[in-house]
Amino acid sequence: MKKNKNLKIYLLAAFVIVFSFILLYIAFSYVNDQIIKEILKSVSYSLITAALFTMIGNKLQRDINEENLRNLISEKIPFLLSLNEAGLDKIDTSFPLKELKYCNDFLASDEVVIVMNDGKRFFSNNIDLFRKRFALKNKKTTFILLDPDTPDSISVLTRKNGHEGNYYVNKINEFIKELKKEKLHDKYNLDIYTQNLYTTMAIILMDSFAMFSLYRISPGQDIVPHFIYKNTRNENSEYMRIKNDVNKLLKDGTKK
Predict the structure, then answer these.
(1) 227: phi then psi, degrees, rounded to nearest 5
(2) pTM above 0.85, yes or no
(3) How far does CA 136 lie from the centroid of its chain?
């Protein structure tokens, strides 16, 4: 009896997985409406995950009862749906620009916007990737840096990171000069803005992905979470919130 029950659970889970892949095939092959496509994708991914959880749970704990199984699914599906709705693609310890899909989007995007305090180390760490992008025609990269002439924000940043004097003033001004020398193609658009608000996060906005990392509150904290959100074309997605935030910074910023 128990063996037959386990077999039924596995067969049901397998059916759900096959059905989910059919939904995905329909969504990608035949559905043109973006909203309906996203709904079908969300349902399919959630069903696949729920089915896999069911199979693994049944293997590890054969005596799980039907009520506990329903509770497991009811807890996991809303959580997975909320992640998919927000568009969360990955959480990492650094910006994963060396991964193929993010690297390709960085190079292919019509415009890339980067928001940072000074951006110098980030630029140096990814100099080869930037040079590939700067050599392309009809692309645009925009940097939004902390205004070196904003003494209150500069003072907090300097004190927070254990520096003195005009450390960040000089660093930002030098980086702006360095950026302007790096543009390799006459048809490439490079814009540099400064903004006079305290920068609470670092942002990379591309066509298909938005990345941001939060700064720690206390000094000397280099390891921070980096969140990557995909562009789901949903106005309520985190990607669109980041994009709107960046657009406001551009509107109020000062072009250098």
Answers:
(1) -100, 135
(2) no
(3) 24
